Amino acid sequence: MQFEAMIPVLKKEMPLKCHAHRSDDILTAIRIGKEFDLDLTLDHVTDGAIIVDKIKESGYPCIVGPAFTHKSKYELKAKSFKTPKVMKENGILFSITTDSPVVPQEYLPICAALSVKEGLSEKDAIEAITLSPAKILKISDRVGSIKVGKDADLILCTSSLLDPQNEIKRVFIDGKPIN
């Protein structure tokens, strides 16, 4: 009974969420995932740029961040807004996270913008907070991009999602305005 909660993970009904900052911990998560044939996500991947070839080889997606924090512990010494660009350049499916409540979720566009400052394209940064998380969660058939047949949950903005001066003018849920 003590392992009953793991049944959906073993049946691949839900991914194993592997929170790992350091390269040795990331490699251990990959080894366990492969050994037990699990679907998993590599969350944080602070040292991901150091072992990017091993992450790419694994095929596991990465949830990068939070990078908008202090380097408050040893595991965070390689923390950088450059990591998303490295993931993109190596063809790894990744998203950017604030790990709310560690960093409030309202700062997600700022984290994406800081990744742009470090070389990630604006398009790829926006995808890393919209479509990529939907792909990682395996719900991209419903959300993450604008397409006929998908849920019509949208916002109408005055400028780019990554612009700190951006204002949300309208919100639509299921295609209906709510403000």
Describe it for me?
This protein has helices at 7-10, 23-35, 52-58, 83-89, 108-117, 122-128, 131-136; strands at 16-20, 40-44, 62-64, 94-96, 154-157, 168-173, 176-177. It has 179 residues and is of the alpha/beta class. A four-stranded parallel β-sheet has the order 1-2-3-4. Strands 5-6-7 form a three-stranded antiparallel β-sheet, with no helix packed on it. Helix 5 (108-117) packs antiparallel against helix 6 (122-128). The longest helix has 13 residues, at 23-35. It is globular, with a radius of gyration of 17 Å. The mean pLDDT is 95.
Number of strands: 7
Instruction: Give the helix tally.
Output: 7
Helix/strand-derived class? alpha/beta
Distance between the termini: 48 Å
Helix content: 25-40%
The whole-number mean of residue pLDDT values reads 95
**How much strand?**
15-25%
- The gross shape turns out to be globular
Structural Rg: 17 Å
- Order of strands across the biggest sheet? 1-2-3-4
The major pleated sheet works out as:
4 strands, parallel
Flag low-confidence runs.
none
Give the assembly state of these chains: single chain
- Could you state the order of secondary-structure elements as H and E? HEHEHEHEHHHEEE
